Amino acid sequence: MCDSKQKSVSELQYSVIYEKDQSSSSFRIKNTNGFKYVNCHKIKKIGNGTYGTVYLVKVHDPETNQNEIKVVKEFSFGEPIQVSKSNFYVEPINEYTLTEMDVLTKMNHINLLTIDKVCITPVGKWCAMMDYMDGDLTRLINLNYFAENQMNCIQSIMKQIIEATIYLVQQGYMHRDIKLENILFRDLSNSDKSNWPSPTCPYLIKLADFNLCTRVLGSSNKVQKLGTLVQTLNYRSIEILLGHEQYNGSIDTWSIGCVFIQLIKLVLKVNNIHASDSMFKEFLNCLYANDELEQTLNIFYLLGTPTNEQWPEFTKSKYYFPQMPRYEKNDVLINKYIKPSIGEKGLDLLFLMLEYDPYKRPPLYLLNKHPYFT
Ligand SMILES: Nc1ncnc2c1ncn2[C@@H]1O[C@H](COP(=O)(O)OP(=O)(O)O)[C@@H](O)[C@H]1O
Ligand SMILES: [Mg+2]
User: Fold this and answer.
1) DSSP-assigned beta bridge partners for residue 215
2) Residues 337-352: pLDDT tens digits?
């Protein structure tokens, strides 16, 4: 136990701006009658992204005299500015952080990451304080249980991701950066699982990182003119890759399809049965390119180049050119690696998520009822 009188040298005071009221789940402003402070000791850095740095911290709350292990995500984007005469410096907030704070403080779903405090660090950075998760999905590969129960785990993980995204859609948002690194898990193997719906998979999934989240105007089906500098390249939907500036929430469905493929790759890597197989390298490289054109052609190489019937808008796309190679669907890679990992029903679901024509990509609430999940 850390005695608050024996403060470690690196323990710093963070000003709490908003705090979640545990009984109502809503956030209260904490700056009436002076700020509330918590003492924070950084244990280690656990993530570093475009807009911030994530640390594992030990927090002491003087109000409750409790110590807790937490995670803080510190946002950074500029020189701190002085906001009052009381020597209080704070960084100007940008629209991405504002959206992320907005989402994090409003959402309430078991499969979405939530926070319990919004704070300002001693050097004026905005940060969100939240529970520690065991890691993001790229780390699942190291876990023994996952190695032994991959099929059930992939199915349960996919269901939880879909449910999180359906909730986001219901709240009027699209995520725009769904990928393994932005999906966190907690291993419940050694915890009380009384309310846990998935006996064959002990991983609780939480969708995170709402930096690129945006509001969907009107119905989720309506296309909006939005920026195309969204979605990490290997999870970017085909319409955005080809330069369509109007898109809708179905770009998240595409990314979830890519997550499906990435999970299969993790499974096959853990199995290690294809290690010496040269075609396996080809499969590992699929949907794993370094630029937009390579990613587009990679997708065509796996799924076949879209025909006019499949996607009438294809040849009208900004980055379409007639010399693009015409591939057939790659049944060899699909039947050798994908199908054995997720079965016929899983394959059907995957192809629905990766429908070329965004209008033909079924909404997530329908995909959530797909026979793969029964
Ligand atoms: N609550 C958490 N528990 C454990 N790890 C986390 C947590 N939040 C973030 N991380 C780790 O930090 C990384 C970066 O966090 P993220 O919110 O995605 O920020 P960025 O916008 O910088 O990508 C994640 O990929 C994950 O590995
Ligand atoms: Mg991230």
Assistant:
1) 173
2) 999 999 999 999 999 9
